[in-house]
Specification:
The protein is globular and about 60 Å long. A hairpin with a 5-residue loop joins strand 13 and strand 14. The protein is an alpha/beta fold. The protein contains seven helices and 14 strands. Helix content is 25%, strand content 30%.
Length: 315
């Protein structure tokens, strides 16, 4: 059935919904956002697939695996900027109790234990996981190019009320942190992440140690070194002393990174919510899809698939 659909938000959640919905040529889709790539938080994401702060939500297991399969399918096209990379998930010796809940999210056969001789000093155990790495500087423009081909309309407009976009059969709310004001949902809070950018070092694996904390993401445009998890911080700016600390931690584990020139730094605000909201709001034509925190790319196409089902159920 032909439907006119408005999508609010052009981060990865909004764009993944637009992508799946636009596969149906009968839908007329318009995306509203105050900014588009490259001026959005999704561009600043390290954007490797891994469940982050959603492990207590069992719905996220299927969403994550669905996104994994989607990215794996797209990686055959170089234009997408998606590749499958080795990720090392490290467990430091200082951690008394290991949380293995993330393993439930990993597709079968994609996770092994790293040999003891390959462990870094101070690490008691590590896993090798094959995951999609999404080069946001390539993938987000790729999606927008697809939208041009599919006649998806994008409009730069800040939406402060759903009343500002009348006349649509369905509104899909992917406003992320903006849902605090748009939906009066104060359970959504910003979680700031700060990262340093070094010259590319693509021979490294993705390295993840949530407890130190440290992550290293070898992209084509830069080596991203993070990071921080600063809840309820609204200032989207980096702090020199924090960036210096992040780099010193990285150098301790990967001394070869000292040879790489520092080329910049970023800060982004993740839209955290205690429970991701993916639902049709009763009595309205609004479908919500927000609150993915640091798992935006990990959950994106799985949540978009659920949004697609909700759209089909609305007459």
């Amino acid at each position: 059935m032909n439907k006119t659909i408005a999508i609010v938000g052009a981060g990865i959640s909004g764009l993944s919904c637009a992508y799946l919905l636009s596969e149906n040529k009968d839908h007329n889709i318009k995306v509203f956002a105050k900014d588009f790539s490259p001026n959005i938080t999704s561009n600043k994401a390290a954007a490797f697939w891994f469940p982050y702060h959603v492990r207590n939500d069992k719905r996220a297991i299927q969403w994550s695996k669905s996104s994994y399969a989607f990215y794996k399918q797209l990686m055959t096209d170089d234009a997408t900027g998606i590749s499958m990379k080795k990720l090392v998930k490290a467990i430091p010796e200082k951690l008394l109790e290991e949380d293995n809940s993330w393993i439930d999210f990993i597709p079968e056969g994609e996770c092994t234990t790293l040999p003891t001789e390959e462990l870094k000093p101070g690490i008691k155990k590590a896993y090798a996981v094959t995951v999609p790495l999404i080069e946001t500087q390539i993938f987000l423009p790729y999606l927008q190019h697809i939208f041009e081909q599919r006649n998806v309309v994008i409009e730069k407009k800040h939406i402060s009320s759903f009343d500002e976009i009348p006349g649509f059969d369905i509104i899909i709310n992917c406003s992320g942190l903006g849902a605090r004001d748009l939906c009066h949902d104060t359970s959504v809070i910003p979680v700031r992440g700060q990262v340093a950018l070094l010259e590319p070092q693509t021979s490294l694996p993705i390295y993840l140690d949530n407890d130190t904390p440290l992550y290293i993401v070898p992209r084509k445009d830069a080596t991203i070194v993070g990071g921080t998890y600063e809840a309820d911080v609204y200032e989207e700016a980096t702090e020199p002393e924090t960036i210096a600390r992040i780099l010193q931690t990285a150098y301790a584990f990967f001394p070869e990174l000292k040879q790489k020139k520092i080329i910049g730094n970023w800060a982004g605000l993740r839209p955290f919510r205690p429970r991701v909201r993916v639902e049709h709001e009763a009595g309205t034509n609004i479908i919500h899809n927000y609150g993915h925190a640091g798992s935006g790319f990990t959950l994106s196409f799985g949540c978009a698939k659920e949004v697609l089902h909700l759209v089909e159920q609305i007459n």
